[in-house]
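pls ignore typos typing on phone
calcium ion + seq
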Amino acid sequence: MSGMDIAAVGQVTTFSNTNLITINDSVNTPTIATPYPSSIQVTGMTNRISKLTVQLFGITHSFPDDIDIVLVGPQGQNTVLMANVGSETKTPVTNIDLTLDDEAASNLPLDSALVSGTFKPTRRLSSFTFTYPAPAPASPNGASLSNFTGIDPNGTWNLYVIDDASPDSGIISGGWSLTIDTTLATLAISRSGTNVVLSWTNAAVGYTLQSTSALNSNAWSNVGVAPVIVNNLFTVTNVTTNLATFYRLAK
Ligand SMILES: [Ca+2]
Ligand SMILES: [Ca+2]
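k done
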């Protein structure tokens, strides 16, 4: 039994808004940043998102636990990038750069100073103790950037930054960027009991799973099992046979 990779096609493109974001402070919390939101227009992308990462450039804040940041995509999906991280005791940071990536090795630190690097989107609590000021979603609940997998990236992306406690304030001096990967993911294969499980990203729409018993026969036939979506992957569970079976995605 063998899997087969499809050639990776697509593009990785970064869109940026380098304008300063001022993280304001007031006694009437939560306090919205300026601007609110900070926006990025994405145009010209021809495929759906297979992976999204977000960069924040030049974060300075005298008490980073005050900061909460939500990203909202062009179709309204949202993800909390960071909230109440970087220690509950006052731990200032100066000019750090963060990359948020679901596949990072670790979360942002909850109980120590924030440092520049790549981290998973992270929040201390699963929900907010306040309503997010409009026009942000009142109760943003997205927890990972995979929320954006499979969507058309074109349109307006909005970054809502607030400060949830007084005093202390800050800036994001270099703004932010989105790195959008529309590379069509490879076909993955694994074994589950007497079945094989084949999966590929739901960003790769319109593909048909095919199989053959002999790679040199060129006689591919459709696998007659409809894919179901599991964790943003099209997934097909197929029975194994005593014969070698090869799989591919065709379009
Ligand atoms: Ca806080
Ligand atoms: Ca504050």
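The CA atoms of residues 8 and 184 lie 6 Å apart. Residues 65-66, 84, 164-165 surround calcium ion (ligand 1) (CB under 6 Å). more later
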